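Lecture notes, unit on protein representations.

Consider one protein chain, 366 amino acids long.
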Amino acid sequence: MSSALADLVVHPIVQAPMAGGVAVPELASAVSEAGGLGFLAAGYKTADGMYREIKRLRGLTSRPFGVNLFLPQPAHAEPGAVELYAQQLAGEAAWYETGTGDPDGGRDDGYDAKLAVLLDDPVAAVSFHFGVPDPEALAALRRAGTVTLVTATTVEEARAVERAGADAVIAQGIEAGGHQGTHRDLAENDGTGLGLLSLVTQVAQAVEIPVVAAGGIMRGAQIAAVLAAGATAAQLGTAFLATPESGAPEIHKRALTDPVFPRTELTRAFSGRPARALTNRFLREHGPYAPAAYPDVHHLTAPLRKAATAAGDAQGMSLWAGQGHRLARPLPAAELVRTLAAELNLVRGESGRQYRPVRAQGGDAR
């Protein structure tokens, strides 16, 4: 494996930075210690909260790790649509004996403050979701010795990532759990995304920077497939959500393989942006009415989702999951990395062979 990522990993395995309390330091450290690249999710956290997690993670591992940032979002075109959706959710609020949240809870996710922290005290890698950062920000991170990755869901987005100066592009197929990292959120594009193998093959031919494949990957054989299609590494989220180190609620972990939840859907019901989740009552009842209004809808539904989780009601939770969720294995994260690597090597006819050893810049984790 040759690229800026090669010095950060033993195995071509990246743990997806799942926001909402899933990608905690314990998970990221276990993945990095096992030779993958662990990630923290800074989304929905303050800059101080992010930095506290970075410091905690540094106390758990000396291996390289990354941090993911959400890019600021533009105002949506129909503010009245959020008010109508709030009325649609009134029954949920009454059922859980709570209120809906303030849709004006902020659009920039504290981006500038978080970026300033990461420039002042760099980490090994920073990835971005929901758009392309300014070339100046990417250049500044590179000068700080940080590898940068940006999510793309189309060939055109991948080319924009390369033009901006990112070190690598994360090609996210429509199979991926959680939020699609589309750069422009247009309702008319809902459900039109490419499958991962098709996307990776096209992106790898369209750009010269390394490609990290993301979306529905749960087995080493699938990692082998995306590497054969032109990817440098694979990013897995749902596979790691099921591990003991994951911060996901236990009811969410169990739901991944529960026959009550046999499929997933892309929905705006929980956040106002297309995101893949296990199909439950909330998604079925409210998805058709949810406006294209992120993060307004995220803020609006946050108290409802929190109350459903506290009540142990999986039918009211945002059960983010990729299409491969039924293949989830509740293994410890380090064991899962080793298992995936062994499966990959078996498929490639390289049983027992290791990838290049970790060589973090400066000899330590950031």
